[in-house]
Amino acid sequence: MKNVTDSFVSLGHWPSAGSFGVNTDILATNPINLSVVLGVLIFFGKGVLSDLLDNRKERILNTIRNSEELREGAIERLEKARARLRKVEMEADQFRVNGYSEIEQKKLNLINSTYKILEQLENYKNETIYFEQQRAINQVRQRVFQQALQGALGTLNSSLNTELHLRTISANIGLFGVMKEITD
Q: Over the stretch 135-153, which tens digit does the pLDDT of each residue have?
């Protein structure tokens, strides 16, 4: 330690003969140089370093504030999106329920209208069958009547002679005369 203090004290004894030399004693020169450099750095660099750190601190705080604002905005948008999703899901469920109800209603309407059409077709079929039966019955009656009439005419023609014919005409004329007297 005595060497270090001696080097400060002996600064005045250095020869100024114009020669510049290098002191190779590491223990004597290095701590002095380091202390001087550190002192100068601390004295002059303190303000610059403080400004740099303050600027960095401010940028970090601004970034944190911006991040918080973005996070709050994202949370708000997320909540809005969730609310819209819930609303859309409710509407979809409502459409699904209404759709199923509407489909069931249309299915029932279709079944009912099909039953009505089948019922009408059954009625038309029954009416057609009845009409055809009546027509067949009328045709059979007409044939039976024609055959009976032809049979009666044939019997009359074969058994009717002139004398019987004249008596029948006379009896009918008599009946008409009686009827005329009754009505008058």
A: 999 999 999 989 988 888 8
**Tokens at 151, concatenated:** 């049979």
Number of Cβ within a 10 Å radius of residue 32: 13
4, with CB counted inside 10 A (0-12, 13-18, 19+), is middle
By the 8 A CB rule, do 28 and 7 touch? Answer: yes
Closest Cα partner for 32 from 59, 63, 11, 55? 11
Q: What is the pTM of this model?
A: 0.37
Please report, for the chain, how many H helices and E strands are present, in that order.
Answer: 3, 0
What pLDDT sits at residue 21?
A: 66
